[in-house]
Design a protein that fits this description.
With about 230 residues, the chain is of the alpha/beta class. It has 9 helices and 8 strands. The protein binds pyridoxal-5'-phosphate.
Protein backbone atom coordinates (compact mmCIF):
# COMPACT_ATOMS: atom_id res chain seq x y z
CA UNK A 1 0.00 0.00 0.00
CA UNK A 2 1.19 3.48 -0.84
CA UNK A 3 1.06 5.70 2.20
CA UNK A 4 1.26 9.46 2.47
CA UNK A 5 4.52 9.06 4.40
CA UNK A 6 6.00 6.97 1.58
CA UNK A 7 4.94 9.60 -0.92
CA UNK A 8 6.66 12.26 1.17
CA UNK A 9 9.87 10.23 1.15
CA UNK A 10 9.69 9.90 -2.64
CA UNK A 11 9.00 13.58 -3.22
CA UNK A 12 11.76 14.57 -0.80
CA UNK A 13 14.17 12.28 -2.61
CA UNK A 14 13.18 13.78 -5.97
CA UNK A 15 13.82 17.27 -4.56
CA UNK A 16 17.20 16.21 -3.18
CA UNK A 17 18.22 14.62 -6.48
CA UNK A 18 17.14 17.69 -8.45
CA UNK A 19 19.13 19.93 -6.10
CA UNK A 20 22.23 17.76 -6.44
CA UNK A 21 22.06 17.68 -10.22
CA UNK A 22 21.47 21.45 -10.31
CA UNK A 23 24.37 22.05 -7.91
CA UNK A 24 22.08 23.62 -5.38
CA UNK A 25 22.01 23.14 -1.63
CA UNK A 26 19.00 21.08 -0.50
CA UNK A 27 18.01 23.66 2.09
CA UNK A 28 17.40 26.21 -0.66
CA UNK A 29 14.21 24.38 -1.69
CA UNK A 30 11.18 24.07 0.52
CA UNK A 31 8.34 21.63 -0.06
CA UNK A 32 4.88 23.16 0.21
CA UNK A 33 2.26 20.41 0.56
CA UNK A 34 -0.81 21.53 -1.39
CA UNK A 35 -3.68 20.16 0.63
CA UNK A 36 -6.83 21.46 -1.07
CA UNK A 37 -9.64 18.84 -0.99
CA UNK A 38 -7.69 16.75 1.56
CA UNK A 39 -9.02 16.00 5.02
CA UNK A 40 -7.53 17.25 8.26
CA UNK A 41 -6.66 13.62 9.04
CA UNK A 42 -4.57 13.40 5.85
CA UNK A 43 -2.75 16.61 6.76
CA UNK A 44 -2.11 15.28 10.23
CA UNK A 45 -0.65 12.10 8.73
CA UNK A 46 1.70 14.11 6.54
CA UNK A 47 2.68 16.29 9.48
CA UNK A 48 3.52 13.17 11.51
CA UNK A 49 5.89 12.25 8.69
CA UNK A 50 7.60 15.62 9.06
CA UNK A 51 5.78 18.10 6.80
CA UNK A 52 5.24 21.61 8.20
CA UNK A 53 4.25 23.87 5.27
CA UNK A 54 0.74 23.45 3.85
CA UNK A 55 -0.91 25.32 0.96
CA UNK A 56 -4.64 25.85 0.55
CA UNK A 57 -6.74 27.36 -2.27
CA UNK A 58 -10.25 27.65 -0.86
CA UNK A 59 -10.72 29.84 2.18
CA UNK A 60 -13.58 28.18 4.04
CA UNK A 61 -12.14 24.72 3.60
CA UNK A 62 -8.77 26.03 4.81
CA UNK A 63 -10.22 27.75 7.88
CA UNK A 64 -11.90 24.53 8.96
CA UNK A 65 -8.60 22.64 8.77
CA UNK A 66 -6.60 25.44 10.41
CA UNK A 67 -9.03 25.34 13.35
CA UNK A 68 -9.00 21.57 13.57
CA UNK A 69 -5.19 21.36 13.45
CA UNK A 70 -4.47 24.42 15.59
CA UNK A 71 -2.48 22.38 18.11
CA UNK A 72 0.11 21.48 15.46
CA UNK A 73 2.96 23.87 14.56
CA UNK A 74 1.94 24.17 10.90
CA UNK A 75 2.78 27.04 8.54
CA UNK A 76 -0.13 27.96 6.28
CA UNK A 77 0.19 29.35 2.74
CA UNK A 78 -2.77 30.73 0.80
CA UNK A 79 -2.26 29.94 -2.91
CA UNK A 80 -5.72 30.41 -4.47
CA UNK A 81 -7.52 33.30 -6.14
CA UNK A 82 -8.38 36.09 -3.66
CA UNK A 83 -11.66 37.99 -3.60
CA UNK A 84 -11.80 41.24 -1.64
CA UNK A 85 -14.26 39.91 0.92
CA UNK A 86 -11.83 37.11 1.83
CA UNK A 87 -8.79 39.23 2.67
CA UNK A 88 -9.49 39.67 6.39
CA UNK A 89 -9.63 35.95 7.16
CA UNK A 90 -6.54 35.38 5.02
CA UNK A 91 -4.64 38.16 6.82
CA UNK A 92 -5.64 36.72 10.19
CA UNK A 93 -4.99 33.03 9.58
CA UNK A 94 -2.13 32.55 7.13
CA UNK A 95 1.66 33.02 7.23
CA UNK A 96 2.12 33.36 3.47
CA UNK A 97 0.05 34.44 0.47
CA UNK A 98 1.38 33.39 -2.96
CA UNK A 99 -1.42 34.75 -5.12
CA UNK A 100 -1.33 38.53 -4.81
CA UNK A 101 -1.62 40.09 -8.27
CA UNK A 102 -3.05 43.55 -7.62
CA UNK A 103 -2.49 46.46 -5.28
CA UNK A 104 -6.06 46.63 -4.01
CA UNK A 105 -5.81 43.16 -2.47
CA UNK A 106 -2.39 43.90 -0.98
CA UNK A 107 -3.70 47.09 0.64
CA UNK A 108 -6.54 45.21 2.27
CA UNK A 109 -4.20 42.47 3.53
CA UNK A 110 -1.90 45.16 4.97
CA UNK A 111 -4.75 46.94 6.76
CA UNK A 112 -6.23 43.72 8.07
CA UNK A 113 -3.08 41.90 9.20
CA UNK A 114 -3.33 41.94 13.01
CA UNK A 115 -0.61 44.01 14.66
CA UNK A 116 0.44 41.26 17.07
CA UNK A 117 1.35 38.92 14.20
CA UNK A 118 4.60 39.10 12.21
CA UNK A 119 4.34 40.57 8.71
CA UNK A 120 2.46 38.44 6.19
CA UNK A 121 4.84 36.98 3.60
CA UNK A 122 3.76 37.87 0.07
CA UNK A 123 4.57 36.46 -3.34
CA UNK A 124 3.39 38.29 -6.43
CA UNK A 125 1.63 35.95 -8.84
CA UNK A 126 2.85 36.53 -12.39
CA UNK A 127 1.00 35.38 -15.51
CA UNK A 128 4.31 34.16 -16.86
CA UNK A 129 2.93 32.52 -20.03
CA UNK A 130 0.73 35.57 -20.78
CA UNK A 131 -2.42 33.46 -20.99
CA UNK A 132 -5.79 35.13 -21.51
CA UNK A 133 -8.09 35.03 -18.45
CA UNK A 134 -5.37 33.69 -16.18
CA UNK A 135 -4.59 35.10 -12.75
CA UNK A 136 -1.38 37.03 -12.27
CA UNK A 137 0.05 40.40 -13.20
CA UNK A 138 2.01 40.80 -16.40
CA UNK A 139 5.80 40.63 -16.52
CA UNK A 140 5.83 44.34 -17.35
CA UNK A 141 3.73 45.28 -14.29
CA UNK A 142 5.64 43.19 -11.78
CA UNK A 143 8.44 45.53 -10.65
CA UNK A 144 6.09 48.47 -10.10
CA UNK A 145 3.69 46.30 -8.12
CA UNK A 146 6.53 45.08 -5.89
CA UNK A 147 7.53 48.70 -5.32
CA UNK A 148 4.01 49.69 -4.25
CA UNK A 149 3.41 46.66 -2.05
CA UNK A 150 6.83 47.02 -0.38
CA UNK A 151 5.66 50.32 1.09
CA UNK A 152 2.66 48.79 2.85
CA UNK A 153 2.89 47.97 6.56
CA UNK A 154 2.54 44.45 7.93
CA UNK A 155 3.51 42.81 4.61
CA UNK A 156 6.87 41.43 3.53
CA UNK A 157 7.26 40.92 -0.20
CA UNK A 158 9.28 37.74 -0.60
CA UNK A 159 9.24 37.07 -4.34
CA UNK A 160 7.30 35.67 -7.27
CA UNK A 161 4.91 32.82 -7.93
CA UNK A 162 3.64 31.43 -11.23
CA UNK A 163 1.62 28.62 -12.71
CA UNK A 164 2.99 28.34 -16.27
CA UNK A 165 0.87 27.19 -19.17
CA UNK A 166 0.27 23.46 -18.81
CA UNK A 167 2.56 21.55 -21.15
CA UNK A 168 4.30 18.17 -21.34
CA UNK A 169 7.12 19.64 -23.37
CA UNK A 170 10.18 19.88 -21.15
CA UNK A 171 11.77 22.74 -23.02
CA UNK A 172 8.59 24.83 -22.67
CA UNK A 173 8.49 24.11 -18.93
CA UNK A 174 12.12 25.17 -18.66
CA UNK A 175 11.52 28.37 -20.60
CA UNK A 176 8.60 29.43 -18.43
CA UNK A 177 10.52 28.76 -15.20
CA UNK A 178 13.62 30.47 -16.58
CA UNK A 179 11.52 33.52 -17.47
CA UNK A 180 10.19 33.76 -13.91
CA UNK A 181 13.71 33.33 -12.50
CA UNK A 182 15.00 36.07 -14.80
CA UNK A 183 12.19 38.37 -13.70
CA UNK A 184 13.04 37.76 -10.03
CA UNK A 185 16.67 38.45 -10.72
CA UNK A 186 15.77 41.72 -12.52
CA UNK A 187 13.57 42.76 -9.59
CA UNK A 188 16.32 41.87 -7.08
CA UNK A 189 18.47 44.64 -8.57
CA UNK A 190 16.03 47.11 -7.05
CA UNK A 191 14.69 44.98 -4.20
CA UNK A 192 17.61 42.83 -2.98
CA UNK A 193 15.67 41.31 -0.09
CA UNK A 194 13.49 39.25 -2.46
CA UNK A 195 14.39 35.60 -1.92
CA UNK A 196 11.49 33.42 -3.08
CA UNK A 197 10.56 31.73 -6.34
CA UNK A 198 7.38 29.69 -5.87
CA UNK A 199 7.19 27.46 -8.93
CA UNK A 200 6.88 23.80 -9.83
CA UNK A 201 4.05 21.34 -9.06
CA UNK A 202 3.88 17.52 -8.95
CA UNK A 203 4.56 17.09 -12.67
CA UNK A 204 7.42 19.55 -13.03
CA UNK A 205 9.40 19.96 -9.81
CA UNK A 206 12.63 18.88 -11.51
CA UNK A 207 12.75 21.61 -14.20
CA UNK A 208 11.49 24.13 -11.62
CA UNK A 209 14.34 23.33 -9.23
CA UNK A 210 16.85 23.39 -12.09
CA UNK A 211 15.69 26.91 -12.89
CA UNK A 212 15.89 28.16 -9.30
CA UNK A 213 12.63 27.37 -7.47
CA UNK A 214 12.85 27.95 -3.71
CA UNK A 215 9.33 26.65 -2.98
CA UNK A 216 7.75 23.79 -4.92
CA UNK A 217 3.98 23.35 -4.48
CA UNK A 218 3.08 19.66 -4.54
CA UNK A 219 -0.34 18.09 -4.08
CA UNK A 220 -1.00 15.01 -6.19
CA UNK A 221 2.43 13.42 -5.70
CA UNK A 222 1.90 13.52 -1.92
CA UNK A 223 -1.78 12.72 -1.52
CA UNK A 224 -2.76 10.98 -4.78
CA UNK A 225 -5.27 12.21 -7.38
CA UNK A 226 -7.77 14.84 -6.23
CA UNK A 227 -11.46 14.00 -6.24
CA UNK A 228 -13.68 17.04 -6.44
CA UNK A 229 -17.20 16.90 -5.02
CA UNK A 230 -18.58 19.09 -7.82
CA UNK A 231 -16.59 21.38 -10.09
CA UNK A 232 -12.83 21.11 -10.60
CA UNK A 233 -10.74 24.21 -10.03
C1 LIG B 1 -3.43 22.52 -6.87
C2 LIG B 1 -2.23 23.42 -6.96
C3 LIG B 1 -0.92 22.90 -6.91
C4 LIG B 1 -0.60 21.43 -6.79
O1 LIG B 1 -0.80 20.77 -7.99
P1 LIG B 1 -0.42 19.18 -8.11
O2 LIG B 1 -0.38 18.99 -9.58
O3 LIG B 1 -1.51 18.43 -7.43
O4 LIG B 1 0.90 19.01 -7.47
C5 LIG B 1 0.12 23.81 -6.94
N1 LIG B 1 -0.08 25.13 -7.03
C6 LIG B 1 -1.32 25.66 -7.09
C7 LIG B 1 -1.47 27.13 -7.20
C8 LIG B 1 -2.43 24.82 -7.07
O5 LIG B 1 -3.66 25.37 -7.15
Amino acid sequence: MISIANNLTQVSTAITDACLSANRSIDEVQLLAVSKTRTAAQLRELHCAGQVHFGENYLQEALDKIAELSQLPLIWHFIGPIQSNKTRAIAENFNWVHSVDRLKIAKRLAEQRPGHLPPLNICIQVNISAEANKAGCSIEETAALIGQISQLPQLKVRGLMAIPRATQVTVEQQQAFAALAQLLSDCQQQYPSLDTLSMGMSADIVPAIEQGATIVRVGTALFGPRIYPNTPA
